[in-house]
Design goal:
Elements (H helix, E strand, L loop, with lengths): L1 E9 L2 E9 L4 H13 L4 E8 L2 E9 L15 E2 L3 H15 L26 H5 L20 H10 L16 H14 L3 H13 L4 E2 L4 H4 L12 H8 L4 H4 L9 H5 L2 H5 L7 E3 L1 H12 L3 E2 L2 E2 L3 H7 L4 E5 L4 E5 L4 E2 L14 E4 L5 E5 L4 E7 L9 H14 L1
Antiparallel strand pairs: 1-2, 2-4, 3-4, 3-15, 5-7, 6-7, 8-9, 10-11, 11-12, 12-13, 13-14, 14-15
Helix pairs in contact: 1-14, 2-5, 2-6, 2-13, 4-5
Length: 395
């Protein structure tokens, strides 16, 4: 095992680098350093679990845009829609246990949902973004994103924007509230509590969805969104588009203020505000990559995972005009939108700006990359791709 505690030259500055990796995976280290030389990288981490064994765990750069605080082993960062994948995995644990039937109406678990034509809308359409509820049509107040009950009450009242099952539109924030409310009705726990109890704690994975303590918040890296990214820009400049309507409930303040605020870290927004690091997310996906078990902890059955990664559709969704090979609560490998290596059965989720987590059940790999300075491209981007290509080239 190679242990790292050094600096390397990047754009005329000495960049801190720490971690460990097995010698076979030195190309991943080279790719990690190349990201700092070729891309607008400030702080980041990458971790790889192969057949239950951590073979890469590297972090480097800085926690802040001023480059005054080094990224540490236990640094956390908001991983944006990587949260959707973790929420999807957690939800499928309920499916595996027989507590939720994806073909049953949502109203079986949430009776108030049976309004305005949604009486028979099945759970699977929420998991695969075909529920027709990509935004709240009767707008709430700015900042209502932090009010779980208000969000869920509005979604329960709302009629679908089109016939459920006919169209895919990425449910940017609403998917998390919809799934989270089903979790709460079935288990008595919020989705953040369920993720903590059923995923994070058993695997010793440092991943948090809401309710972050002051001590944990002190470890969080500054998030630097790129305002050229289509979704970030929609809130500021677009009018009367699906994208802009998805953000009406966000606070009336710039994105950097929202994403670095205390209230953002303490709220449960299951589709977007999970905070973790590459090590935590790679461990979670590492378990699902080998049939649902890691270090003696059984999370799910192989049969349940097979059902979860059965393709539901491959539709160009309306929110961002992107094709997705869609599973139940997770994305399947879609190189033109979210690249997860060479194997088609890989599954996971990216986050706007570059962060990514995925499992490859054929190579038995759990992979994650986390960053704080986001890029503008619509896919998971060149930094993650460089690391992924180096990883598979080293196998």
């Amino acid at each position: 095992m190679i242990k790292l505690n050094e600096t390397f030259e990047s754009r005329g500055r000495a960049t801190p680098l720490n971690g460990m990796l097995e010698p076979q995976f030195e190309p991943v280290l080279a790719a990690f350093q190349e990201n700092y030389r070729m891309e607008d990288e400030v702080g980041s981490a990458v971790s790889v679990v192969v057949d239950g064994r951590t073979v890469v765990d590297i972090w480097g750069g800085w926690r802040d845009g001023a480059r005054e605080r080094e990224w540490q082993r236990d640094t956390l960062v908001c991983m944006m829609s990587v949260s959707k994948g973790i929420t999807g995995l957690a939800f499928n644990i309920l499916v595996d246990r027989g507590l939720v039937d994806v073909n049953a109406p949502v109203a079986r678990y949430w009776p108030e949902f049976a309004q305005n034509g949604k009486e028979s809308l099945p759970v699977r359409f929420i998991l695969d973004h075909r529920a027709g509820l990509p935004y709240i049509a009767d707008p709430l107040w700015p900042g209502a994103i932090y009010d779980h009950k208000a969000q869920c009450d509005a979604l329960a009242r709302q009629a679908p924007l089109w016939e459920p099952g006919t169209v895919a539109a990425y449910h940017i924030h609403t998917q998390g509230f919809l799934l989270g409310e089903i979790v709460r009705r079935v288990t008595g726990k919020t989705v953040g509590q369920f993720i903590r109890d059923e995923l994070a704690r058993p695997l010793h994975a440092d991943f948090h969805l809401g309710n972050m303590s002051a001590r944990d918040q002190a470890r969080v890296a500054e998030v630097m969104p790129n305002m050229e990214a289509r979704l970030f820009a929609a809130k500021e400049v677009e009018k009367d588009t699906l994208r802009s309507k998805a953000f009406v409930q966000n606070p009336a303040e710039p994105w950097p203020v929202t994403l670095n605020s205390r209230i953002w870290r303490e709220a449960e927004i299951a589709s977007g505000n999970g905070h973790g690091n590459a090590r935590a997310v790679a461990r979670i996906y590492g378990a699902f990559a080998r049939g649902g078990e890691l270090d003696g902890v059984r999370l799910s059955s192989p049969a349940s995972i097979a059902a979860m990664i059965t393709e539901q559709h491959n539709i160009t969704e309306l929110m961002q005009d992107r094709p997705y090979h869609q599973g139940l609560g997770i994305l399947l490998n879609t190189p033109e939108a979210v690249y997860m290596g060479p194997n088609p059965r890989a599954f996971g989720h990216h986050g706007i700006g570059g962060s990514l987590g995925f499992a490859d059940p054929d190579a038995r790999i759990g992979f994650s990359y986390a960053c704080n300075k986001m890029h503008a491209v619509g896919t998971n981007g060149p930094r993650a791709a460089r690391l992924i290509n180096a990883l598979y080239g080293a196998l």
